[in-house]
């Protein structure tokens, strides 16, 4: 076994959970190198085409259609394609919950403990721009990282909140078709990946987190519409955080039923509760995870059309724009995309495009309400970085695309002014800058140069 120090209490728990023979195999997994994974953004590039775009040695994650292993010596976070939102770096087993929740375009989806965004980005792709994704994290600082990842991936129909589950439940009521809870947990499944998880475990173990998980799941059931699905997951092994939480839900909410999840190669069933999925590092090429799916049967409160029990509580935070400013309509005319003016909201000179049939609740702390189109400034409109990431190159009337090897790609990502070649220029006005046809952000042409409009907070360092 590696030098990782695991307490006798934990080792005894795992021995009791697995049995002596399997426990030995589990311990041997700590002598193996951790695995690195990335998940392809299928809204921007197909999983079949992606390996041809990069020089890395990629191997498919067997149970994730758009997941790949890469070597730990590679640096995929320092690649222009990462800045184009073509993939997300994620441990392979952690890709499983979002894959197993059957989200359909048009669904109302809640990712309740969403930061840093690994699950939400995949759920957003499944929605294909229809319906709404509410991504929440109680930590405001973590919610900011969540927002960046969603916008980097080009997910437009989002609202990012930083609220407690009970506050959300009070506002929304039984509104959501699908809810994902990747619950805060003791992290036993990530010990091999992250030594700090062991230190945290010694301070706060399974019993501490199980009480939090019960409260979170109780509030989630309140927000699930009749017929809706709730997926619960953790990255830990303890039964009191896994199967016993499912038993808590079933025992306290008679309208909930367990839906059997299919097992795939290397996956194990629940321990003492059939129908769940467990992932162990000695059985799959990945770390540890637990996943369970439940459905809310009919009956109970009706789902409200506005997402709240009281329509008056969903008054908009900003004003809907009936007559749009000329500078905004002039810019929108540069895009080969239709916008529904009734969904455009202007608040403090920021222009948002709201998800369909959604009105932001005034009681909630939003980091983002829909797609930030840009800002109105002194009779001109400045398009936002998030808007650029939702576009395909053919959707903007003026584009510049460079090969990834062109040093101007990195210079653009660093915020520099870019000179154009005689073949490329002159360029006047707004331009969408791309790498190999994949949008990176906006620039403004001044003739033979591009004034850089890449968002400063995202710059290549």
From TrEMBL:
Task: Please give the Gene3D superfamilies that the UniProt record associates with this protein.
Answer: 2.30.130.60, Sun protein, domain 3, Vaccinia Virus protein VP39
Q: Which Pfam families match?
A: Methyltr_RsmB-F, Methyltr_RsmF_N, Methyltranf_PUA, RsmF_methylt_CI
> Source organism's superkingdom?
Bacteria
- Span-the-membrane segments of this chain are none
Which InterPro entries would you find in this protein's record? Methyltr_RsmF_N, MeTrfase_RsmB-F_NOP2_cat, MeTrfase_RsmB-F_NOP2_dom, Nol1_Nop2_Fmu_2, RCMT, RsmB/NOL1/NOP2-like_CS, RsmF_methylt_CI, SAM-dependent_MTases_sf
| Positions of the UniProt region annotated as Disordered | 300-320
Annotated keywords: Cytoplasm, Methyltransferase, RNA-binding, S-adenosyl-L-methionine, Transferase
Q: Which GO terms describe its biological process?
A: RNA methylation
One example of the protein's molecular function in GO is:
RNA binding
Q: Give the SAM-dependent MTase RsmB/NOP-type domain ranges.
A: 1-297
Q: Where is the composition biased (Basic and acidic residues)?
A: 308-318
Annotated CDD domains: AdoMet_MTases, RsmF_methylt_CTD1
Q: Which residues form the active site?
A: 235
Which residues are involved in binding S-adenosyl-L-methionine? 113-119, 137, 182
The record's family statement is: Belongs to the class I-like SAM-binding methyltransferase superfamily. RsmB/NOP family.
What is the name attached to this protein's record? Answer: 16S rRNA C967 or C1407 C5-methylase (RsmB/RsmF family)
Q: What is the lineage of its organism?
A: Bacteria, Bacillati, Bacillota, Clostridia, Lachnospirales
């Amino acid at each position: 076994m590696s030098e990782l120090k695991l307490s006798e209490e934990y080792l005894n728990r795992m021995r009791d959970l697995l049995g002596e023979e399997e426990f030995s195999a589990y311990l041997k997994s700590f002598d193996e190198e951790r695995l690195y994974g990335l998940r392809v953004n299928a809204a921007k590039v197909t999983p079949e085409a992606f390996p041809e775009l990069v020089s890395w040695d990629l191997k498919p994650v067997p149970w994730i259609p758009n997941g790949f292993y890469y070597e730990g010596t590679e640096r995929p976070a320092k690649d222009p394609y990462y800045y184009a939102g073509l993939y997300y770096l994620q441990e392979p087993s952690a890709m499983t919950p979002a894959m197993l929740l059957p989200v359909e375009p048009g669904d109302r989806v809640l990712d309740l403990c969403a930061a840093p965004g690994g699950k939400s980005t995949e759920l957003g792709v499944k929605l294909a721009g229809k319906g709404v994704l509410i991504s929440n994290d109680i930590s405001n600082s973590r919610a900011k990282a969540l927002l960046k990842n969603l916008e980097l991936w080009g997910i437009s129909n989002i609202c990012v909140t930083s609220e407690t589950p009970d506050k959300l439940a009070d506002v929304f009521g039984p509104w959501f078709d699908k809810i994902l809870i990747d619950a805060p947990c003791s992290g036993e499944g990530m010990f091999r990946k992250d030594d700090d998880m062991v230190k945290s475990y010694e301070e706060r173990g399974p019993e501490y987190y199980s009480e939090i998980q019960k409260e979170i799941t109780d509030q989630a059931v309140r927000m699930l519409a009749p017929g809706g699905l709730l997926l619960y997951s953790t990255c830990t092994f303890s039964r009191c955080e896994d199967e016993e939480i499912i038993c808590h839900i079933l025992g306290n909410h008679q309208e909930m039923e367990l839906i059997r999840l299919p097992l795939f190669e290397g996956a194990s069933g629940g321990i003492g509760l059939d129908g769940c999925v467990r992932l162990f590092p000695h059985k799959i090429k990945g770390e540890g995870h637990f996943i369970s799916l439940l459905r809310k049967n009919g009956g109970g409160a009706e789902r409200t059309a506005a997402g709240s029990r009281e329509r008056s509580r969903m008054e908009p935070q900003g004003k809907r724009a009936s007559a749009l400013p000329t500078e905004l309509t002039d810019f929108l005319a540069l895009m080969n995309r239709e916008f529904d003016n009734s969904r455009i909201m202007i608040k403090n000179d920021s222009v948002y495009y709201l998800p369909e049939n959604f009105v932001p609740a005034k009681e909630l702390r939003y980091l983002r309400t829909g797609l930030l189109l840009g800002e109105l400034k002194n009779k001109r409109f400045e398009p936002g970085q998030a808007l650029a990431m939702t576009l395909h190159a053919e959707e903007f009337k003026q584009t510049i695309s460079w090969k990834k090897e062109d040093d101007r790609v990195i210079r653009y990502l660093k915020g520099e002014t870019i000179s154009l070649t005689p073949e490329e220029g002159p360029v006047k006005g707004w331009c969408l800058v791309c790498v190999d046809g994949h949008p990176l952000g906006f620039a403004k042409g001044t003739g033979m140069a591009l004034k850089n409009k890449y968002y400063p907070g995202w710059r290549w360092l």
